[in-house]
Amino acid sequence: MKNILCAALLSLxxxxxxxxxxxxxxxxxxxxxxxxxxxxxxxxKPVFTTNSVVISGLxxxxxxxxxxxxxxxSTGAVxxxxxxxxxxxxxxxxxxxxxxxxxFNGGPGSSSVWLHLGALGPRRVKMNDNGTLPPPPxxxxxxxxxxxxxxxxxxxxxxxxxxxxxxxxxxxKQFFGNSADLQSVGEFIRLWTTRHNRWLSPKYLCGESxxxxxxxxxxxxxxxxxxxxxxxxxxxxxxxxxxxxxDQPGNDLPYSLYLPAYTAVAHYFHKLPPxxxxxxxxxLAESRAFAQGEYTAALAxxxxxxxxxRKKIVAGLVRLTGLKPQVIQDNDLRIDQGVFxxxxxxxxxxxxxxxxGRITGRDDDPxxxxxxxxxxxxxxxxxxxxxxxAYVRDDLKFKDDLPYEILTSVQPWNYGAHNDYxxxxxxxxxxxxxxxxxxxxILGGRCDxxxxxxxxxxxxxxxxxxxxxxxxxxYAQFDAGHMMYVNLPDLKKMHRVIENFLQx
Length: 504
Known about the structure:
- By secondary structure, this protein is α/β, with parallel strands linked by helices.
- The protein is 33% helix and 17% strand.
- It contains 13 helices and 14 strands.
- The protein is globular and about 70 Å long.
């Protein structure tokens, strides 16, 4: 199973390998390292441009601020420059009433380009309406479903993504870990907030993929380190507990949590029996019930599962996944996403996307056990790369000869977890218990095969959270996958859902 995260792209947000990597909960970034450029200092003045965009029929004027913010040590020495793009609505002057949302993707090792030019910012990449690859050359267009009408936006590229770099006397690897990541991104948020007089503004974090893991930890870190309390978190297609997505011998939990995503994708391709095919909601309800009940119990039995019981589970999985019985038997009832992506449309010579199971590609090697690429990742990488490289230099007027690192290697990444799966759900529960006014919005795509939505549900349901505060958590599901916003109907829905969440 793919246990790498991004962004996404996606959130990616992450990278998808041709086949599952060696079992390692810390494998969350590209397999091949790239050379990271080092900059001599963090000092450069931000560049300001003005523009406007029509959102919900109203023209929204804004100022875009693009620059590098110095990351300082306790002695004042510069240890890195963090690249950011901030959008401020220019016709709103009461800063104490105007929300600001800090946004980032995941990986770890991903820039914020996916949320920036895919979902939230005032400009977006032009994709086909269903999220598939358009023909090159690629284009940018106004984003009429940006949330800039309701909140100012700050897009953050953690070191060493985007143009963010370690100072020349610092090693980039010092930022490659959960604790260092929280400190550096948290310090950026503190400094940007201070320089822009936004301490009294309502403040939100929006993270995608590993950015969800980061956001949960940041909420607690900002509170404990700086006394900065947040109004809310927007968590997009992510993970809070790696035990829910990392299938290893002895950990069968991901197989049951992934099953409803398989059902959703099989429904999309009309591979379910007629009674399930006629109603997706009923199909998903049956899939969840089977996963939580008979399937989980059967996996717990291991080799002691009786032959007649095993036969019954095979039939149930065939019904809910559209796979052939032999595939399920050959994989000992345990279907990881690589097998599902390879086998569902195998007879048609197609493989499925990991980030979005709706998107298919031609199978280069039908005899191989796993897909050799991710069609959904391939559909987004080219358009987003071209758009960001043009946009930052042409529209935002930020000139830099360094490559904009959309995705880069940050391995080995230190999760700070020893003899355990990394998890940030306990930090989320802790800060929600301390700050009962902080609300959480969880967004997920039904066809996400990297971070299926029920993996986050499971982590949330098992947090040690005061029952009174569970009403602060809301969920929204979408038709597409990890980057649901590249699917135009989902982008429109996402806009409505987030704007409602940001209402005071």
